Amino acid sequence: MLKKEWPIHSILAIAIIATWLKTYIVYKTSFSITVDNVLQEFILFINPLSMLLFIYGISLFFRSEKAKNRYLVLVAVITSIVLYGNVAFYRFFSDFITLPVLFQTDNFGDLGVSAAASVFWTDLFYFTDVLIILIAIKFINVKSGKDASFSVQRKAYYVLALAVLFFNLGLAETERPQLLTRSFDREMLVKNLGMYNYHLYDIYVQSKSQAQRALADGSELVEANNYVRANQIEPSKEMEGIAEGRNLIVVTLESLQSFAINSEMNGQTITPFLNSLTEDEDTIYFENFYHQTGLGKTSDSEFLLENSLYPLSGGAVFFTHSGNTFNSMAESLGNNGYSTNVQHANTKSFWNRDIMYESMNIDKFYDIESFEIGEGEAVNWGMKDIPFAEQSVEHMTEMQQPFYSRLLTLTNHHPFTLDEEDKLIDEYDSNSGTLNRYFQTSRYLDESIKVLFEDLKEQGLYENSIIVMYGDHYGISENHNEAMSQYLDEEVTDFTSAELQKVPFFVHIPGYGEGYVDDEVGGQIDMRPTIMNLMGIDTSKDIQFGSDLFSEEHEEFVVFRDGRFVTDEVVYAGNVCYDKDTSEPTEQDLCAPYIEQAFTELEYSESIINGDLLRFYDEEDGQLTTIPDVELKQ
Ligand code: GP9
Ligand code: MN
Question: Where in this chain does the record put each Sulfatase N-terminal domain (predicted)?
Fold first, then answer.
């Protein structure tokens, strides 16, 4: 026993420091967390602290020294298990644990086996802090007793813990605005909040959706289904099955807005290849097509495409409801003999894609690991779109045909940076660097699509495929209105902002021969029904909110995720009804009937997602599976 008497809370302090430092060392050695600057490194370093202060601090409420010490050891063991569990999981899945994977046993059935295979005896290192605490308890002689100011000190301690937490959250918010509302990526959550806070956050998000799910029964589906059936239309007979049996390639054009198509920037063409498609005999180009995404950005557009359901108002549905039952386009195509996949050169956990794709029954995800990024082939968010297009086509040559392959481009993403050699046009000259560079990256994206087409032809895949392309969401936010108004040479009002939500939508059918520019007003919710009709797959029993854009009966009414809407005559934005012809406010009455409908539509879609209602639905016979007495309207 050491002679010296240590200050009162020495063991607590040792425990906190030991676990804190161990966690940081584990971050650096056992995960590949990308750190781009000193601030990020600093956040990574301090992020375990707030939670450790809180939980270890509870020991201050224990009376006996013995109970206190036991509690400290227990906390060290539990946090070590959490951390180590993630390490073992990461070794196999290169991802952090999230609650749904623990329950999705059918998808991750090999979890236990693979976790066991990646355990080594040297892993005892992950429990070093437990050992340190045990040694401290045994050998350190702590001064006993409490002084009078103890409860004040305890309060001060918790104020400090709170301060550390808010400091951490503040830094995280500067580094990644909206991290908590949008989630983005598990790696980003761990990097900014810390492993322990991340798990609490994950538990909160997942239990919230589980609670809503538990409260729902199939009866709510009856109403939603009635609404869908009442608005259902006949898809176009003329276009039905026109691409049946062909490969389906869907390309997401990152951040591409329609204002870039068929227009110039200081005399330079922004998207020459896509422009040529608008005049191409095999292409139908929709010029009045709007994105309907919310906080989940790209992932929301994927959600709309696959399910023809609206994304959520309060966060990325890819994160909050990845455990739901869906009837995705991929699943339907899969049932019709297609092999299905997504290709995207980014970390697979971004937008929780790895988990969500399993839920949507997409057979394979070609994530960053499937691509070889040579020297000079990465910029901004990662792999450049041109080598990405080339390697995606190479992958296609290996796929079982017919296939449904979805490509997500990335270079045209904020902050829109490019290497010198890829700048094919000049920068713009406004006060917004973002907008100035946007033209250049859009030009580069256009070039990559040209390469994609060339490679498909070269590989003999072109003729027997159809290529559908859509812009996922805006690239230029309203923060750049001043620069935008310089470019458009008009004031950017709420009306203009709504019209700027137009994104390009191309349907390219090799050999079609009757291409044209279609002015039908439509949105991303319509992609699934439109594409499925082309593929000759019947969706009349599916629960979807969009409809076939080629159908004569298609209703020209697009609801944005934030409640704004557009028809062929009006635009409703900022609670004002605008006349589309004059771009000026008009009588509110002209919008009134749609306001209610927009709201109802979003509500029904949201209730389906929150209640996970499709688990009660059998799309084969269009009936509820749980309430046998209720006949659903067909
Ligand atoms: C990330 C890519 C871009 O993988 O989809 O995401 P975004 O920020 O556009 O949603
Ligand atoms: Mn995007």
Answer: 246-537
Q: Which of 249, 346, 349 is nearest to 305 (CA)?
A: 249
Most informative mutation of 346, 445, 476 for ligand 1 (most atoms within 8 A of CB): 346
Q: Which amino acid is at 484?
A: M
Active site residue 298: yes
The domain spans of the chain are: 5-211, 220-624
Ligand 1 neighbourhood includes 176 CB (under 6 angstroms): no
220-624: what CATH class? Answer: alpha beta
Query: pLDDT by residue (tens digit) across 543-582?
Result: 999 999 999 999 999 999 999 999 999 999 988 999 999 9
Q: Whose CA is nearest to atom 3 of ligand 1?
A: 298
State whether the beta carbon of 413 lies less than 6 angstroms from ligand 1.
yes
For 481-522, the pLDDT digits (tens) are 999 999 999 999 999 999 999 999 999 999 999 999 999 999
- CB-CB contact of 24 with 164 (8 Å): no
Q: What angle do CA 90, 95, 101 make, to 5 degrees?
A: 100
**607: Cβ–Cβ under 8 A, 6 or more apart, which residues?**
216, 220, 224, 613
Q: What is the DSSP string of 160-173?
A: HHHHHHHHHHHHHH
Distance between CA 93 and CA 337 in Å, rounded?
28
Give the tokens for residue 564.
Answer: 């704004």
Specify the residue with its C-alpha closest to ligand 1, atom 5. Answer: 298
| Interval 335-393: pLDDT, tens | 999 999 999 999 999 999 999 999 999 999 999 999 999 999 999 988 999 999 999 99
What is the pLDDT confidence band of residue 634, given thresholds at 50, 70 and 90? confident
Please name which ligand lies nearest the alpha carbon of 408: 1
Find the 258 Cα to ligand 2 centroid distance in Å: 15
- Which ligand 1 atom is at minimum distance from the Cα of 252? 5
Contact in structure between 592 and 583 (CB atoms under 8 Å): no
Report pTM.
Answer: 0.88
Closest of 564, 456, 581 to residue 510, by C-alpha: 456
Residue 391 beta carbon below 6 angstroms from any ligand 1 atom: no
Q: Report the atom number in ligand 1 closest to the C-alpha of 255.
A: 9
Angle at 414 between CA 409 and CA 420, to 5 degrees: 80
Cα of 194 vs centre of ligand 1, distance in Å, is: 22
Q: Which of 19, 23, 283, 298 is catalytic?
A: 298
With tokens 């079609």, the residue in question is 512
Radius of gyration of the chain (CA): 27
Residue 317's region, left for phi above 0, alpha for psi from -120 to 50, else beta, is alpha
150 vs 11, 52, 154, 161, CA distance in Å?
16, 20, 6, 17
HEC profile of 272-318: HHHHHHHCCCCEEEECCEECCCCCCHHHHHHHHHHHCCCCCCCCCHH
